[in-house]
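**Entry details**
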Amino acid sequence: MHDLFQKVSENIGYVLGFLVVVVALFLAALLLEKAARKKNAAKGPIFSTRKMAMIGMFSAIAMILHLFDFPLPFAPDFYKLDFSELPILVGTFAFGPAAGVMMEFIKILLKLFIKGTSTVFVGDLANFAVGCSFILPASVIYAFRKNKKNAILACCAGTLVLTLFGTAFNAVYLLPAFSKLYGLPLDTLIEMGSTVNPLVNEGSIISFVIACVAPLNLIKGASVSIVTLLIYKPLSPIIKTGAGM
């Protein structure tokens, strides 16, 4: 815990920037959710005490799944797949886009308190941003019309945005940030990709993210979407009753 607070104090500017991103995404999600509620003539508060308790529970489940990440054979070991977005997408379908952003943030916060950060918050911001790129489009589309057809459309849109944003985000921000953080030339990171994936061209960050990052995000989005579509309807009455909806 002391080590975490020390890292926060040493990187206060970055942490404050992280929080600005969190607040901005939460406010955007809240505005979109209010628009959806107005269209559907929804009544009652956006957040109730019981709903907040359910959000906390889903966030805790997501954090546990986040800890059980694993590498894939077509990407370097520093890229790992986890299924923490599964409970968050289920919870976001039930509670709305603003709750989804909250769950993503609480997941990261819990992980930081339990495991700390090995990337001086760089990887944690990346996980939050990429996670939101998946759950936000999906939950906003579903919030405006809650039926099976729209749920499928929402999951497809979320997976597409996750894949495109996650790929571009890695090329523009994450890989250069890791290069600076660990004092490694960018070409060294790309070479680590070429050793496990023959589709990565030497010195080409574009081929790296297309061959290593895009498939990982596509697998994550598709698998989480499929499971969510299978389990959400049976779980929905239980979740909403538990949340006092």
Observations:
- The chain has one domain: 2-242.
- The first strand starts at residue 70 and ends at 71.
- The two ends are 36 Å apart (CA to CA).
